[in-house]
Amino acid sequence: MSIFAGILNREPKKICHRGERNMYLVVGLGNPGKKYEKTRHNMGFMVIDRLAEMTGTAVDRLKFRALTGECIIGGEKVMLMKPQTFMNLSGDAVREAAGFFKLAPSHIIVIYDDIDIPLGNLRLRKSGSAGTHNGMRSIVSLLGTDQFPRVRVGIGGASGDLVNHVIGKISPGEMEILDETVRNAADAVECFVKDGIDIAMNRFNTRKHKDEEK
User: Among all residues, which ones are annotated catalytic?
Assistant: First the structure.
């Protein structure tokens, strides 16, 4: 049974935990360890790091099988999360946190890399299938729903081996584009929390990186 049974139809703004502010869980997907730093498959981690920098937050508390940190964005309490279970088991951390805080799906934002989106582009969605992404498959399976928002970071398709593409070395030129995309994705999450998903989608789904604007 879904952990959201009985709360899916609640109004998100009324969902609180122990008298606290409304809370959002912002999850960046990636793999822990030096080996995977600055790889395409860790775009979610990079966006969390950018949000942590923007808000002056230390994402270093081990909780729910993840590194976490709490901050305030637009008057809303936000938990930033980087699951430490490796990508295929990302749902373990998300399920534990969502269950503990009794969050509605609309208050869980997942950020991840997407090979089906051109390099440097973003796609925000209110809900949708997990596609081929193993981390998202784990989350959808364990939450029992795909009705939660997500920020998909475009890393472009693989010209050769897919595994090498997502966890292999990134060229300096491509890293420059992805660094910009990470900044845009963090801004999109901030906009989402402050102004809502519809405004965030309107602002950031059409945004292109600077090389495409030339």
Answer: 41
